Amino acid sequence: MTAGATIRRLTAAYLAVALVALLGGVLTGLAQGLEHAGINVYPALTPVVQSYYHGLSVHGVLNVLVWTTFFICGFVPFITVESLGAPLAAPRLGWVTFWLMTGGLLLAAIPLVGNAATVMFTFYPPLKAHWAFYVGLTLVVVGTWLVTLNLALTRRAWRRAHPTERTPLPAFMGLVTFTMWTLASLGLAAEMLFMTIPWSLGLRGGTDALLARVLFWFTGHPIVYFWLLPAYVSWYTLVPRQAGGRLFSDPLARASFLLFLVLSTPLGFHHQYADPGIHEGWKLVHAFLTFAVFFPSLLTFFNVVASLESGARARGGRGWVMWFGKLPWGDPSVAAQVLAMLTFAFGGIGGLINASVSLNLLVHNTAWIPGHLHLTVGTAVTLSFMGITYWLVPLLRGRALWSRRLALVQVWLWVVGMLIFSNALHRLGLMGMPRRTMIGAAPYIQPEWKPVLPLVAVGGSILTLSALLYFANLVLTLLASREPYGQDVAFAEAMSGPDHAPAIFDRFRPWLALAVVLIVLAYGPSLVYLIATTPFDSPGMRVW
Ligand code: HAS
Ligand code: CU
Asked: Residue 415: how many CA atoms within 13 Å on its side-chain side?
């Protein structure tokens, strides 16, 4: 088998797992949406889904942990290899990694599906899941580190053959994404290895909620950029070309990714403003750093809009704003991703509200937060990934997309459904409705929630319909499409190319070192204090 064929098969294998996970995640989501409108379908779903909270745990794990991770481990190595024009350095390691991750996933799925890990995707102790859940997820994380290793080996081999060239932007971005993630995932690994795994195996008698949450959010914030950056890779290096234009600035794009490498991790306390046991001063430091990591997204906003504009103007667009209409809106891959960007502008603004300590106290643990996360990971990321599969699946299969029109309908339905759904959740959150709660069963439903709750079900149903059209189109592409797909991956050229960037913009180690220093400063004192004083005396709980 040729090297090119290996990466294609590997990518297809990851995509297959990712898509099955997304399907499971979408279907459980529908039941939740209906529940908020007073339609309780859970009795009919037993024994497959045994409760609202069982379904919610499956929904969260499948969508934000499995769909994202497996898609990314397929897409990013594919893009890296394509842009380097060099094969994956260790194809056998690539397959071992895939099977390790898939094996880990299956191990975690047994208790998850069997209602022995109904602990949500954040699995906060003292909620206690079956050990197989923690061990399985840990194997998935270890697999992602092996992906990083393979990418690093691939770049090293490429570097030997091209000692003076700048790393092509897509490969550079892919490597930054996985380097950032590998560093960031150490918190989760520590939580698993020293806390949840020995505790769930009975080797450790008790646990501690606060230390576990600190270690979780050490990884839990940067994981959102692990999901986002692959979408950014596409927005920077592929969408401008699909739109008929060029990337505005390659050096600026590198600067944005390097800022993510440095700033993604040392700010997880913005998920813990309401937690006792962490000094207010450190929470404030993390708040400031959260506002700092806002900048690489602003750079992205500017750079990507300028790139899209070049495409629209080349297609005859005029005016300050009206050029926007001249983007190739008939191309479902472009439409999906431009709409994902627009949605992200709102999700990002909501993120800044969350990050402001005083405002956070208003929205924390309310429905506002799922409103935010469905605009970000649920649309900016997921709709972008869907847009990517509209060319990637045809490319891997060698057959044209079954229906472009159906795909366009799907994309617009997703956006409309999400606007209704997420707007309702944001509003309900501001009215104090809690998140992660079986609202239909709550005795404290407030009269002012009642007119808004049905919109959650309406939006959720439109989203489900959109997802089903998406899967139908992909299945028909695989099975029924006859028209060949002859195109290769085409990356956008840059108006200002990589050689305009200083040499340090093509290096990893100095930035990685800076990232480590910032993490030690922002987390060190609190972690040392917690590790020294934590009693590990909380018993586990199974509340379901
Ligand atoms: Fe967040 C909670 C703050 C981004 C996901 N976030 C969550 C949770 C998830 C999540 C899953 O500070 C819930 C976790 C849980 O279960 O408890 N978030 C932020 C901030 C940002 C942010 C400051 N979040 C994301 C992304 C996510 C994500 C990205 C997933 C992919 N978030 C928070 C905070 C909490 C939180 C607190 C805790 C809340 C609590 O109390 O529990 C920033 O990174 C956002 C910056 C982004 C922008 C947007 C820039 C716009 C761009 C698009 C360009 C548009 C174009 C089209 C090109 C400012 C790049 C326009 C065209 C024209 C013509 C105009
Ligand atoms: Cu965060």
From this structure: 20
**The two structure tokens encoding residue 38:** 């007073």
Residue whose Cα lies nearest atom 54 of ligand 1: it is 301
- Can you tell me the distance from the alpha carbon of 77 to that of 97, in angstroms, rounded to the nearest whole number? 12
Q: What is the dihedral of CA 423, 425, 426, 431, to 10 degrees?
A: 130
Q: Measured from the CB, is residue 360 less than 6 Å from ligand 1?
A: yes
What the block records as the tokens of 526 is 């609190």
Question: Closest ligand 1 atom, CA of 271?
Answer: 38
Rounded CA separation 177/254 (Å)? 12
The Å distance, Cα 372 to ligand 2 centre, comes to 11
Question: What is the Cα Rg of the chain in Å?
Answer: 23
Sign of CA dihedral 19, 25, 28, 33: negative
Task: Write down the H helix ranges in 114-221.
Answer: 131-161, 169-184, 186-190, 197-200, 209-220
373 Cα: distance to centroid of ligand 2 (angstroms): 10
Q: Is 511 left (phi over 0), alpha (psi -120 to 50) or beta?
A: alpha
Please, which residues bridge with residue 207 across strands? 538
Model confidence at 1: pLDDT above 50:
no
* pLDDT tens, residue by residue, 85-128: 999 999 999 999 999 999 999 999 999 999 999 999 999 999 99
Model confidence over 44-62: pLDDT tens digits? 999 999 999 999 999 999 9
User: What predicted TM-score, i.e. pTM, was given to this entire model?
Assistant: 0.97
Instruction: Decide: 301 in ligand 1 pocket, CB within 6 A.
Output: yes
**Beta carbons of 237 and 170 less than 8 angstroms apart:** yes
389 φψ region: left (φ > 0), alpha (ψ -120 to 50), beta (else): alpha
Residue 57 CA to residue 115 CA, distance in Å, equals: 9
Q: Is the peptide bond before 168 cis (omega within 30 degrees of 0)?
A: no
Cα distances (angstroms) measured from residue 10 to each of 7, 72, 428: 5, 12, 43
Burial (CB count <10 Å: 0-12, 13-18, 19+), residue 156? exposed
pLDDT band at 3 (very low <50, low <70, confident <90, very high): low
Cα–Cα distance, 519 to 183 (Å, whole number): 10
